[in-house]
Amino acid sequence: MVRINLLPWREQQREERKRQFFIALAITGIVGVFLVFIANKYYELEVDNQNIRNQYLQGQIKIMENNLKDIEDLKKKKSELLSRMKVIQGLQSNRQILARLLDQFVRTLPEGIFYTSLTKTNKKIVIDGMTVSNNRVSQLMRNFEGSPWLANPNLTVISRLNQKDPNDKAAKFTLLIDETEPKDGEAIQ
C-alpha cells in the first residue's frame, strides 16, 4: 500500500487561505477607513456649508430687525405728525370760531354797557363789564340767548359802583356764558 501524506499540502492550503484572509481583511480595513474618511470629509463640507447659510440668514435677520426698527420709528413719526396736523386743523377751525365769537360780542352789546375783560376757558366764557343800569344787563343776556354762538348766560355778580348815591345806577357785573356752535338749520351771522 502506498502512503500519501496529505498533511503538508493541507497545511500549505491553510496557510494560503489565512494569508488571503488577512490580505482581504487588510484591504477591507483600508477601504473602510478610506470610506469613513470620505464620509467624514463630506459631512464636514455639509456642516461648513450649513454654517455659511446660517451666518447669511443671521445677517439677513439683523438687517430685517434694523428695517423693523426703522419702520417703527417711521410709524412713531407718522403718528406724531398726524397729531400735530390735528392740532393745527383744530387751531385753524378755532380761529374762525374765535372771530365769530368776537363778532357776536359786538353785535349783542346794547348801548350803555362795556366790557372790561373777556376770559375763555374751554367752552366757558367769563365776561366782566360795567353798565349804566341793570336793565341793560338783562338786555345783554337776552341778546346772548338769541345768538347761535352763545348759550346759557348766567349772571354771577352785579354790584353798584357808588353805594352812597341812590340815583347812580352804574354797576359792575360778571357774566358766565357757554360757547356753542350753530346747528345746521340756523343762519350763521
From TrEMBL:
One of its GO terms (biological process) is type IV pilus assembly. Residues 54-84 form a coiled coil. Keywords: Coiled coil, Membrane, Transmembrane, Transmembrane helix. The keyword Amino-acid biosynthesis does not apply. The chain crosses the membrane at residues 21-43. It comes from the Bacteria. InterPro entries: Extracell_DNA_Util/SecSys_Comp (IPR052534), PilN (IPR007813). The keyword Transmembrane applies. PANTHER family: DNA UTILIZATION PROTEIN HOFN, TYPE IV PILUS INNER MEMBRANE COMPONENT PILN. This is Pilus assembly protein PilN. It comes from Entomomonas moraniae.
